[in-house]
Amino acid sequence: MIIDSHTHLLRSKYFDEERLGQLGWVTPPDTDINVMVDWWKQAGIDKMVCMGQSMERVWNTSFDNNEYVFECYDKYPDFIIPFYSLEPIDQANCFNQRVYDELEELLPKGVIKGVLLTPPYGQYKSNDKTAYPFYQLFQKQGVIVQYHHSAMDGCSHTFAPTKYAQMVDLNDVVMDFPKMKVVVEHLAYPQTEHLFTIMANSDCIYADLAMAYDRSMTIAWDLVQAREYGVLDRIMFATDYVAYGQYPYSENPVNELARWIDMVKNGFNEINKRCGWPLLTQEEIDGIMYKNVARLYDLDV
Asked: What is the CATH number of domain 3-296?
């Protein structure tokens, strides 16, 4: 079994082409959900966590409008795990009351399984006290909070400044909300070991491998370190956005999906063997591919 713990749905009409074009960002094409689900299933993926990406505060852009995620969930309820994307601080640098009110109404219904926050894109710090009422709500409702809390490759540094993705800021959040379940994308690259020290002190924190597979030597070593810190059982397979024909995808994304899956199942151990590092056990590989995310989301697998 394979569960993708992090992927995005894209609708081009929610991108500000003029603003992002100044950074060299090319608006990705729409991907029909039927086509996308078929790609994932061809690759052997059984479920995927889906979300947009709210970046209105600075970039007047979102990957979708959240409603599209739930439309897709209604169509594929056994395949899609729906997330809500938001920014807790609005464009006027104030508490985002509109979004809070919407979530306060939606969360008790139980459809939303998690929320996505991306502080570097919104250029706010995750420990900004303006966001704390949201964290109180998420902790109370048992909602998983996913953070883009890492560097951004291939774009201008102004797009997602890393000063807004420091682990010391996230450490404040998990200290103040110790029961809030957190997922950190991309192993918090390049602050991975600092993330592991935080994870070692809280079993509520997970991390994913999205868009990390091309750094295969680094990630192989990161997984060795994750075992040393006792947190390997909270590392999860993930893909990220899909934009066929644009980096990192070819016109047939199944090829890339298959390569990434094989990297976890076989490739990292090939590196470990060559370097004399400890091999991943089959139980650990199964954990990364589906067992860890199934435990986080309480899935019956």
From this structure: 3.20.20.140
